[in-house]
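Give me the fold.
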Amino acid sequence: MLSEKETFETDIPGNPNPVTEMNEFMEGRVILYGHPGLCRTPEELLSSDGFQMVLQHFLKKMLAQDSPLLNCLTPFKKDAEYDTRKLSEFLKELLVKDVHETGYANTDLVLLKDFIEELYSYWRRRERYVIFDRDAEDGGIDLKNYHPIFIRANEEFKNLVLGTYRHISAHVTGDWFRVYRQLPAGVGVGLLAEKITWKFPSEIYQKLKNIPFIRLSLIYPPLIYYTKSNKRKGKFDPLSKNPMESVKLDSSRWLCFPAKIGSLVIFIYFHKNFVSHVAGLSNLFELASAQEIANRKPDGIMLFGVDPALMDNQLVGYFEDIPNNIVVGAVAYQLPDVDYFGYFKKTALTIHNIIMIERGNLPIHGAMAKIDLKSGKSAHVVIVGDSGAGKSESLEAFRVLADKYIRQLTVIFDDMGSLSIKPDGTVVGCGTEVGAFVRLDDLHPGYAYAEIDRSAFMNPHMGNARLVLPITEYRHVVAGYPVDLFLYANNYDNVDEEHPALELMKDAKEINEVFSSGARLAKGTTDEKGLVHSYFANPFGAPQKKKQHEALAEKFIGQLLKNGKKVGQLRTRLGISGFETKGPEEAAQSLFQFITKNL
């Protein structure tokens, strides 16, 4: 731990003020810089500037509340202030001495124990990060040899905090604990970062050269974050100018998450005031290796937290740098609006989709899975649908019904993928993510708790509460599986004899109309309400390049029909009140029965 620095939200990236990396305390968040192993003993921990920073902010909070706990600190009070160094020395004495042996003048030991408990809880309630930036220009960290050291250091730091708290508490109460809870008392996220030289397509991209790449992400789930916004709004429209031309970046305030999004590598740069979302990124996208970063040009670049003046009055946007064959996405530093993980995910995926369209592939907003049934039949199924249509919920229904119907379920993508045509005419699907960003309300009861040890939760107390969890392996994401069933997720129609849960269509024109209409009942995941439409259920690249996309959609649907594959609708009824769970489950049952009888 190094020295203290306070960072406030007025630290706008459009007016950079370079700083030396120091420990930071922001609203609800603590960022420590340097190797956590720098504190090896309880004495070092209590003497560190990082601990002083946390202690000072805790006392400030207690003073603002006029907390009665402060009555136990009279010996450390001078005028209206508290001597935190003197208090730290007292806490160091409590590591080895009973409180009565320290000369502590206040006899209210119950109050002192409550103060220590509250200080410990205050630390644990913060979002806690450590960033170790190894300043090597050549991508020199050998993770094979180094990652055990980094992991061990974080584990030792966790145990150090726990041990320090326990020793102090025991010497105040005169008794040791008889029940020990091995809480994640260290940091919640540890990041190993490194500067790596990559191939800059032109001079304007040199501004990014000193921003370190995340090489290793160590997370301690379950993680719970409370962000300032809980839904996405606005459109992903083209920008009139490349934001890289005018952006001003203080490299000490930025990090880069090099994401493997399908077969692409996209550098996701973000201002550290949005570091809360790095655990979600770690669960959602595969992290690129040094070899996939060094001396190459990425397929796309994303800037999260730029001066709003560069954004054409938009929250989000993208620019196609055609001469340099790169797509640049950007999100404005505009709080509280953009403090939502959906902006990270969807901006990165929009970049992916723009590139896919230019390469002649069809981006798909939906889900794809390989379903092996106990009947012996199997199928590769694509379910197309916009947010809240039931694509992810249908996958969840597959899982719920697994014991009855499924031998094995392999997820290829959960939200975004792309179709391509092989030389022999086979239409295959590839994904983009190894994780899922799903609504808590739409999961089967108990599932979130079953996966709690791998998940990052976001605003669980609010509507549209989300979690990000890993669901598949990267090798499945990019393998390229043939498409057997291509279905539109209809969440608004009821099911009857004339309109079954699974309805096939054979007319290419009718199919294009259904998919292009992109109709759904909005579920409150964005700022939309009621029955809404989005072109091809995909606002992320398809309408922006509608003419090209229309030609591709016609080509791919025609090829699927030519190949004898099944195309139609799957009525999930997710948007109909009372069918949020039952609808997707009955749709899944219909799908399983169809695969058994027809494939």
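The longest helix spans residues 143-173.
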